[in-house]
Amino acid sequence: MKLLNIVLCLVFLVYGFRAAVAQQGEQRAPLSEPAIAFDSKGLNAIESRLLTTVLSGSPDSPVTNVRLVLKNNSPTFFTYVSGWATFYDAGGVRCGEGQFKADALAPGESVETDTPGLRLRCSPATWRIVATNLLTRTKEMAPAEPVPPPPAEAPAERPATVNFIISIDGEEHPIQVNNPLVLKLGNRDRKIVLRSAP
Fold first, then answer.
1. d(C-alpha 48, C-alpha 69), whole Å
2. pLDDT 10s digits, 10-23
3. What is the DSSP-derived secondary structure letter of residue 11?
C-alpha cells in the first residue's frame, strides 16, 4: 500500500511539474485573438479561440460557460487534452477560470468545446489557456532506450591449471585441482582430490 501511495505521489508531481513548466510560457491574449498553450518542451501545442463573444459577468451574475475552439498545432496525435481557460479584467486581475477538455485531437484538427464550471465575474480584456494534460498514443511516446543485444557467448574457458603442494610429515607431494593424489597411509592407499568450492 505504501508503494502505491509513493507511485501516485510521483505521478502527481510529474504532471504538476509539466503543468508548471508549460504555464511559464503561456501569454495573455486579447479576447479577439487566439491563446496558445505550450507542451512540456515549450513548443506550441494547442491554439484556442473564443466562440462566445458576449462576456460581461459580474459578481452577482457571473458568466458560467463559454464556447471555444481548440486546434492541435503539434505533429502529435493527442488522445486526451485538458486545461484551463483563464480571464483577466483591464487591470490584469484574474476574474474567472474554467476547465476545458477534448478527446482524440489529431495534428491540425480543431474541436469545439466549452468550459463548464466557469464563474466569470467581470468583463474580461485578456485571456490565456494552459494545457494541463496532453496525452498521446502509446506508440508516440518517447522511444525507450534500445536494449543492447546479449553478448555473444564465449566458449567456456577452462581454468588455468593451478599447482599445489601438500606436505605430509615434511614429505611434499604435488597436487593439482581435480587430479587425484594417491597416498599410502598405513596399509591402505588413500585417494585425495582437491576441488574448487561451488
1. 5
2. 555 555 555 444 44
3. H
